[in-house]
Amino acid sequence: MNRGSGVPPFRRPEVRSDALIRLICLPHGGGGASAYHDWAAHLPPEIELLAYHPPGRGPRRSEAAHEDMASAVAALLAALGPYLDRPIALFGHSVGAAIAVAAAQALEAGGRAALLRVFASGHAAPTQSPRPGAANATMAHLATDDALWAQVAELGLTAELAAADAALREIALPAIRADFKISELWRPDATPPLRAPLSVLAGADDPIAPAASMAGWDAFASAPVERLIFPGGHFFTQSARDDVLDALARRQISLQ
Fold this sequence. Notes:
Number of strands: 7
Structural class: alpha/beta
Helix content: 25-40%
Distance between the termini: 46 Å
Radius of gyration: 17 Å
Strand content: 5-15%
Number of helices: 7
Order of helices and strands: EEEHEHEHHHEEHH
């Protein structure tokens, strides 16, 4: 039985009690709230950042990682409950982008929140199958440990740590595999389309979610989808962080 670790599911780098908007950030595959540890300081004071820490990693490593979209979204919505007292925007990178869109669909269906905008970053539109860049059209979550770790390292995630600490692999792989499984097996219904504006972000040199793979997101939104391209690979949210945050702050994360 997964009893839970008692660790809060959100990290609030800066508690902003007077903030008008909450920006909910969901991490990349295998990642946690630390992916956004320095974002809050670069956002306007009217925006409070809440970084989600999914189970199965870091301080929540004792909890089982979610392996399907339904359970991942249900857990996120349950955690969000206390924070829906003001408008929110959702930002997700990689598998976090898919979860953000699925959660937005659920929030709109339930009328549970004022959802201002959804940012889907570094994730090909789910209508594209197989996933761009997948060798021999295989799914990464079914790969051997060696093959999966090699793919993760090629994307720039944990590459240096992988070379320095073999034990890291045994800790990180289960959550990474679970997140790939969520992303690769998600077969969403695009109807009804999102009422909230949808922006998709891509790295110009991203090998698994290139800009061309974003076109299918149009089916998920009732309004035209905005496409934002940044320099860098899959983790352009780190290498081009300032540009990404500037784009977020200038988009419709507002009450107007």
